[in-house]
Amino acid sequence: MARLISWVASNLDAFFGLAIALTVAILGIIDDVPQDVVNSVILLILALLAQALLRERWRRDTAEKAGRQMLAESNARLDELVPHLAQITAEDGVLAGARSAINSASMVRVLNGAEVGAAHAEARAQTDRWRFRGGTGTYTRAVTLPECIEHARRRNGTLDFGIEIIDPTDEQVCERYAQFRRSLSPRPDATGERWTVDRTRKESYATVLAACWHQQRSGLLNIDVRLSNRMSTFRYDLSSSCVIITQENPQTPALRIDRREIYYHRYSIELQYSREQSRRVPIEQARQVQLDDEPSVEQTRRLFVALGLPLPRAYGDREVSDIIVKAIQARNPYE
Membrane: is it a keyword of this entry (predicted)? Predict the structure, then answer.
């Protein structure tokens, strides 16, 4: 009812004319209305019709005028926005900056659990170079280096391998590292050993021995070993396809950045400068000592003397044998 009343109010002239026409028509049928009255009513209805047409035309003209005015205002505003749009869409504009920020947020992939090992395996499969920076290089010695050498052999290609580990002759950094590892877990790891200063030193010595041992057995390998007096809680593994950043705790998520991303190159520079600030091990001097398939205690001692890293005097044959086993029969600490 309310809707009907509203419609009648908005179309009152037409409704009024219709009512008059119907009334007069009915009265004319029954001959109760004179002919001159009917004619007057017809003129009145025609007047109402003309008024309705004029009003409709006025509304249409008003709407068209308002539309043209709105288009003109919109065009003027667009003209004002063109310079701003140019700034936004330019190569160095706001849009490019926003796109860069979005890409930066998505360029790092977070790895969890088995994804970490799978990412390392994928990176090792086709790479012709590897850069490692971390603690003692236990995983690198046990898994990364031998597998990268095997992949290089299968594709008959060369391998450029760089290792940066803590200096086994620096007792202070070894103590800091052992304390850090014990703070993560006081229990023995997968190798069955707890982290102590002695173990830390042996693990680093073993990585140096493994590097020399593999180089003597592979003409495709070019290896560089650096010793640092700084400890890092992160480990960096950079291949020709990506960089993977992990921590000593295997439960902590890892990060992977592909080569096409800008931060891959940033980390490559970081590792390069870090190596340059570390002490280089003269691996070429290892040619003076031929190492057997399982080096002897005497060969190992002479090797470290040739490298300028003589073993501690307190190390007897048993301790040297421990280093040999860690180097040649290295166990994956995360199995």
Answer: yes
* CB of 185 closer than 8 Å to CB of 247: no
Q: In whole angstroms, what is the distance from residue 40 CA to residue 33 CA?
A: 11
pTM over 0.85: no
What DSSP designation does 20 have?
A: H
The β-bridge relationship of strands 108-111 and 129-133 is unpaired
C-alpha dist (Å) from residue 247 to 118, 244, 321, 332: 16, 10, 29, 15
To 10 degrees, the CA torsion angle through 310, 316, 319, 322? 100
Residues 323 and 298 in one domain: yes
Quick: pLDDT tens for 90-139: 566 655 665 555 545 557 889 998 899 999 999 999 899 999 999 999 99
Answer yes or no: do 99 and 127 share one domain.
no
b (16+ CB within 10 A) / e for 206-215? bbbbbbbbbb
Query: In terms of domains, do 123 and 57 share one?
Result: no
Contact 41, 3 (CB under 8 A): no
